[in-house]
């Protein structure tokens, strides 16, 4: 996208919420010191391994440093609605990516007859088998969008484990399990498989997602 990237290399499962908040505040202060954070300097948005709570901590740190900045809410994208976020932000990522994939496939089908013969000229996710790599901020919403469109997410891959169901995973069940345990392993109506095996599963669309 052309924007600068930054992050913190930690295993967040080893830290309490209080400790994570302190780490995030220190990170935000470092960004402020170098003038990398602010509505007219640099925005923070959700990515792999982040939560809306994390974004709220960073937003609060900026507000503490610049209490008179009337535009402080613009410092962070993807925050909670109660902190000035926009309703539907999280779902828009998934829906937007799925629309982009759909239109890209349709475009290629219009240009390439041999490709159109395989996927059809009016591609949709309905009836398609999908392998999804990543079940974070974007991946969860993509999985939900695909399921609502009639597609079957047969495998989901995370960094150290993958789950599979040839008939399609129940995304609501997987999301609830992942939220409670922090892992895909043991999700209802699924079988745990290796990442390599999941990446090699036959499917209609393979999607790398955050």
Structure description:
A five-stranded mixed beta sheet has the order 4-3-2-1-5. α3 (89-111) crosses α4. The protein is built from seven helices and five strands; from the N terminus they run ααααβαββαβαβ. The model has no long low-confidence stretch (mean pLDDT 90). With 210 residues, it is an alpha/beta fold. It is globular, with a radius of gyration of 20 Å. Helix content is 42%, strand content 10%.
Helix content: 40-55%
What gross morphology would you assign?
A: globular
Please state how the strands of the largest beta sheet are arranged side by side.
4-3-2-1-5
Mean of residue pLDDT values:
90
Rg, please?
A: 20 Å
Compute the separation of the termini in Å: 15 Å
Order of helices and strands: HHHHEHEEHEHE
Number of DSSP strand runs: 5
> How many separate helices?
7
Q: Which regions have little confidence, pLDDT < 50, spanning 5+ residues?
A: none
Report the structural category.
alpha/beta
Strand content: 5-15%
Main sheet summary: 5 strands, mixed
Q: What is this entry, summarized?
A:
This protein is an alpha/beta fold and 210 residues long.
Please outline the helices and strands.
Elements (H helix, E strand, L loop, with lengths): L16 H17 L18 H14 L23 H23 L1 H7 L9 E5 L3 H12 L3 E6 L4 E3 L6 H11 L9 E3 L1 H5 L5 E4 L2
Parallel strand pairs: 1-2, 1-5
Antiparallel strand pairs: 2-3, 3-4
Question: Features of this protein?
Answer:
210 residues, 5-stranded mixed sheet, 5 strands, single chain, alpha/beta
